[in-house]
Amino acid sequence: AKDRGRNRFCFYTADMNVHAVAQLELEASLRRAVEREEFVLHFQPKVDLRTGLVTGAEALIRWPREGRGLESPARFIPLAEKTGLIVPMGAWVIEAACRQLRSWHDAGWSHLRLAVNVSGRQFHSGDLPIVVAQALARHDVPAGALELELTESMLMDDPEQTIAVLTALKRIGVQLSLDDFGTGYSSFAYLSRFPIDTLKIDQSFVRNIVTEPQAAVIAVSIIDLAHRLQLKVVAEGVETEAQLGYLRQHDCDEMQGYYFAKPMPAESFSELMVTAKAL
Ligand code: C2E
Ligand code: CA
Ligand code: CA
Ligand code: CA
Fold this sequence. Notes:
Layout: H1 2-13, H2 18-36, E1 40-48, E2 54-65, E3 69-71, H3 73-83, H4 86-106, E4 113-117, H5 120-123, H6 128-138, E5 146-151, H7 152-156, H8 159-172, E6 175-181, H9 188-193, E7 198-201, H10 203-207, H11 213-228, E8 232-235, H12 241-249, E9 254-255, H13 266-275
Parallel strand pairs: 2-4, 4-5, 5-6, 6-7, 7-8, 8-9
Antiparallel strand pairs: 1-2, 1-9, 2-3
The structure holds ligand C2E and calcium ion (3 copies).
């Protein structure tokens, strides 16, 4: 098999550019990393804008690679999507998040929630509800402590299947949020049809919220829309005190962003839970 692999490699390199070879190498090491579960989660705190207290975190995957440090998801998630590796990788993320929730709840922070990102392929893989239910059960985590961040585009793919999956997930009891809201199809139809709990205002609006009237109008409209539909609304990518003030003034429920904290390893998050003052 090794020989064949080498031949195949030579055959392909003949008319392949350097970029394609690099992609193949990246794919091979990504496959190995998935098999060996060589990933870590970093956690970015989410803060309640009324109390100023940390309510939980978004779990973000990182890939520690020898000689390259922590590879960012922008480098490998697209490839994981393309190759289907995102499905086992995504299952690992859910498992690791539930394990971490158990440990934080045991430490006395039983109010903490964790959000994980779900990719389109993972969502439509057929066994997402089972993966979620098994991970929750294995670590004895209350379903309400786990949140799945979905995107608009993955919900538009196959409306029938989408409703079936969302319904199964809500029956289990996990929280569902719409990530990057306002950047996708933004069809209002699904907001009433799909059992969503939370909207996340995309960073592109938050970034310009105090400098561009357009962005501010959109952000405030999303907050208003969410509240009228009895949904929670979270702003992401908050980097300045001015942005924070604006969001507070306009009644946004929660925020996350570099202004409060960057994504960090689990131990740092635990330290922050002990030392952080209310925002
Ligand atoms: P996302 O879900 O929209 O996550 C937010 C991204 O914005 C994160 O980048 C986060 O580090 C970054 N961010 C947070 N606060 C700020 C801020 O104040 N300013 C700026 N400029 N950026 C901020 P990250 O961790 O590099 O992740 C990028 C994307 O990769 C995520 O976007 C998500 O789509 C994807 N991703 C990350 N982890 C996973 C995962 O476990 N599974 C899947 N399917 N996708 C993931
Ligand atoms: Ca997200
Ligand atoms: Ca986002
Ligand atoms: Ca994003």
